[in-house]
Each structure stands twice: as structure tokens, then as C-alpha cells.
């Protein structure tokens, strides 16, 4: 068999998205295609669509919204360090900023200010004020 980057080989979009590690399983990638979460030029694509070098896809995963450009065809799942060489991440800056903001506000383990139960310090201050 010829190399992975041969121009006339056929590769399905679900297999490609799985092999570049946007989805954990190929069936998740296929389900995303079928439910309209994968688009090419604004049009939904089916899982069986052929991938070509230079295609741009908009992919919505649970974690984030991706925009990727196909740099080369990848038929087998490989480690992340290798997989990133097969696509170019062209996700808009505002989407990345939104993710940064979400990460900073939700995953710090601290509650957002003025929301929810008072902290122990707030409680003590309140008790001192009431006395």
C-alpha cells in the first residue's frame, strides 16, 4: 500500500476527525456528522464525505468549536504530537478568548463573586455586623 499522504486515496470525514483526535471514537465523529455538527463551507456533511487536502471544516465538539484546514490525510489514529501535523487550526480568535474566559471563571474552584452561599469570612462579617 502507498503512503498516507497519497493524493488519490479516499478518506471519510468521520475517520479523519477521529484520527486527528477531535473525537475520542469514530462513532462519536460519525454521530457528530449525522447531527449537523460538522460543516464544510456552511453545509452539513455526511460521515461518508471524502476529505481532500485544503478543505476547511467547522466542527462542534463538546469542548469547543473548531475550524480546521486539512493539511494532509491521516488514515490511522496516532499520538497527539503527530496528529497536529495533519491539520491547521484556523479557529477564530474570539472563540479562543471565549474558551479562556470560561476556563478562568469555571474551573478555578472558586465561586463567582456575589453568587451562592456566603463564605465563612462573609458569615463572620455578617455576624459581627448584626451584633
UniProtKB/TrEMBL annotation:
PROSITE patterns: S4
Residue intervals of the RNA-binding S4 domain: 11-71
TM spans (from-to): none
Keywords of this entry: DNA-binding, RNA-binding
Record-linked SUPFAM superfamilies: Alpha-L RNA-binding motif
Positions of the UniProt region annotated as Disordered: 112-131
Biased composition (Basic residues): 112-121
Compositionally biased tracts (Basic and acidic residues): 122-131
Family: Belongs to the HSP15 family.
Protein name, as recorded: RNA-binding S4 domain-containing protein
Native source species: Niastella soli
